[in-house]
Amino acid sequence: MSQDDKKALVPRPGSEIARPSNRRNPVISRMSRDLLARAQAQQLHAARFRIGDYELREPDYRQILKWAKTLNTSPDAILKTLSEHPVLPPQEFVDDNEPIELSVVDGAIVSLPWDFGYLPYIPNKWEAGLCICTLAFEGSVYLSNLGTEIKPILPKLKRLVWYLADAETIDLAGVPNLTVLKCSFIPGCDVDSSPINELNLSLVPKLTELDCRYRDLAELDLSPVPKLKKLDCSENELTKLDLSPVPELIKLDCSFNNKITELDLSQIPKLKQLDCRCTQIEELDLTLVSHLTVLCCSFTYLDLKAVPELAELCCWSASLTTLDLSSVPGLTELEFFQTQLAALDLSPVPRLVNLICWHGKLTELDLSPVTKLKQLNCSWNQLANLDLSPATGLQKLDCRGNHLTELNLSPVPGLAELRCDSHLKLFNAPKGLEHEGGQIISYTSTSDASDDVDDLPF
To answer: Which of 342, 362, 377 is the last residue in one of the domains?
Structure first.
C-alpha cells in the first residue's frame, strides 16, 4: 500500500474487481466497464487525505504536496500560510474592500489567495480535477525568481483577482469560464516595472465584470465580451472607448482617462452607474441612460431632467456655476469639488444624507431642507456662519478652511468626528467627540454619539 493510500480516510478501490471477460456479450461488457469506471471515479472523488486540520480530495492534496516540495517546506506550512494571509485590496480601492480568503468545501479548495510576499513561487502547474472558483494574487511576482508570466489552468475558475505590482503577461487560455477579472496595477509601488498595457479578452467570452485600473492601457477592445455588465477602466491612457459591443453594461467607470473627449451611451441604455470624472468629456446626452442612479462627472453644465432616479451625484468641475436639483428629489448623496458655485439650494433634495461641497466658493449654506443629514464636508469655502440646528442627526463634520470663528454644537449631540481650524471656538461639544483642531469651550451634559458612522472622504 502506498503512502498516499495510508493517509486516505476512504480507501481507494482495490484491484480485486475483475475486468469483464472478452467472451461476454460486447454490449454487456462495455456497460460493465462503464459502471466499473464510474464506481472507481466516485470512490476516488470521495477519498480524503488529511493535512493538519484539512481533509482534502486527491487533486487538492497532490497540489499542496507539489507546492510544498517546490518551496521546500511542509504541506501543513503551505496551508497555514494560505489561511493566515488573505489577499486584501489596496487602500486606494475604496470601492473594493472584500478580502479573499482560503476556503475548502467538501475537500475541495474553492477559493485560493496567493501572496508572493509569503509564497515566492508562481503556481503555473495545476493538478487536473481542481475545483478552484476564486483565485487571487497579491504582491510582486519578481519575488518568485521564476519569470513574470501567470498562467492559471483552471477550467472551473469564475473569478480571477490580481493586485500585482508587476507581471509582464497573463495567459487566460486556461480559464475559459471566467466571469470576473480584476487585474489592477498597484499605484505607487516601488517595483521597477511597467504594468501590462495590453489586454486580450478573446479567451474569456463569458466575462461579466472587468476591473483594469492603472494598467496604462491605450486601447480596450470589448467586442469579445458581449455579456459584460460592470467595467472599471479608470486611471489609464485611453483616447476612446467603444461601448457598442456591451449592451448589458450597468456600471461604467472611465474616470481619469484625460484623453477621452466623447462617450457614446446610445448602445448601453441599461446603464445605472457612470463615473467619467477628469476626462475631456464636458457634456453628455443623459436621455440615452435615463435609469442612472449614480453620476460622477466633470461637466461644465448639468441638466438632470433626464435622470429622475438619480440617488448619488458627484461633480468635479471648475466651470460649473449653477446646479439645479429640482429634477432629482430622491438624491441621498451630493458631492461637488472646485466649482464656481456661490450658493446651493438644497430644498429639492430633502432625503440628502451625505453632503460634500469642498474647495469651492460658498458664502452661505442653508441646511434647513436636509434634516436627515449625517455627514457634512464643507471645507475650504468662504462660510462666515454655519447653523447646524436643522441637522440634528449629524455624525461627521469637516469645516476647515472657512471664515468661521465659533461653532455651536448643541444641535448635534450625536456628532462623533469633527475636523476644523485650530482657532475655532467650540461650544456645547458632545462628550467623547473626536476632533482635529478647534478649542472646546464647553461640553454638553449628555452625548448619544452613534457608533454606526460610515466612511466619508474628508
So the answer is: 342
Residue 137: Cβ within 10 Å count: 25
Overall number of domains in the chain: 3
Amino acid at 440: I
- Inter-axis angle of helices 58-70 and 75-84, nearest 10: 100
pLDDT in tens, 4-31: 555 555 455 444 444 444 555 666 666 6
Mean of the per-residue pLDDT values for the chain? Answer: 87
- CB burial of residue 416 (10 Å; 0-12, 13-18, 19+): buried
Written as one letter, the residue type at 370 is: V
Tell whether 357 and 454 lie within a shared domain: yes
Q: Is residue 17 part of a domain?
A: yes
pLDDT band at residue 52 under the 50/70/90 scheme: very high
Entry field: residues in the chain: 458
Instruction: State how far the alpha carbon of 390 is from the alpha carbons of 78, 354, 387, in Å.
Output: 57, 14, 8
Q: Which amino acid is at 92?
A: E
State how far Cα 358 lies from the chain centre. Answer: 25
Contact between 88 and 122 (Cβ < 8 Å): no
359 inside domain: yes
Integer distance in angstroms from the first to the last C-alpha of the chain? 65
Name the grid cell of 133: 472558483
Domain enclosing residue 330, as ranges: 282-342
Amino acid at 369: P
**Cα–Cα distance between 271 and 286 in angstroms, integer?**
10
Residue 321 in any domain: the answer is yes
312 to 246, 274, 355: CA distances (angstroms): 24, 10, 10
Judge if 316 and 385 occupy the same domain: no
* Strand ranges (E), 255-329: 273-275, 294-297, 312-316
Say if residue 359 is in the same domain as residue 454. yes
C-alpha 15/C-alpha 86 separation (Å) is: 42
Q: Would 409 be classed as within a structural domain?
A: yes
Q: Which helix (H) or strand (E) holds 202?
A: none
**Do residues 410 and 453 both lie within one domain?**
yes
